Amino acid sequence: MRIGILGGTFDPPHVGHLALGEAAIAQFELDELLIIPANRNPIKSIKTVTPAKHRLGMVEALVNGRPNMAYSDLEITRGGQSFTVDTLAEMQMVRPAEYWFIMGADSLRNFSEWKSPHRLVRMCRIAVAIRPPLIVSDVLVKLPEEFKDNVDVISMPPSDVSSTEIRNRLHNGQNINSWITPEVQQYIETHKLYRNV
Q1: DSSP H or E run through 140
Q2: Which of its termini does the chain have fewer beta carbons within 10 Å around, N or C?
């Protein structure tokens, strides 16, 4: 069994997350991509984050009906700060498999500052999406030598979509149709999210 884990705040989840997941499924022949919203991201210092139940609801809307994609409330249920190494340890106990933890190049740059990175790379491979103008060497140069053999690169076209920009556009009443799926947009409208960002 080959499983990819895509973690993050997902505030909100968007088509860039979907494209990243689909690219990882195709390139690493994953049996499943599991999207896991963080309860509290220890690295990002976002002042106000949408309540976890809504971020989970939006992720559920994002993956609903998509083959090979699922979601988990593992980190939200666990509570507190969400550390990837704790999540992987729990996943390996419950569902032993070959794991890939999927991230963007910006996250890989400070990977050595994560909780127990040496333990984490023993439990999974790191799959990183590198978007132009960055190239692989730009990212790997800042990574300690002992981690480099555990990194796989995800090839995918560049994307300008960002959760921050989506929140700003929603607050300003601008169109975001091309950046989120209709299901996520419906969830946002139903629950009146991002009106006072």
Answers
A1: helix 136-140
A2: N
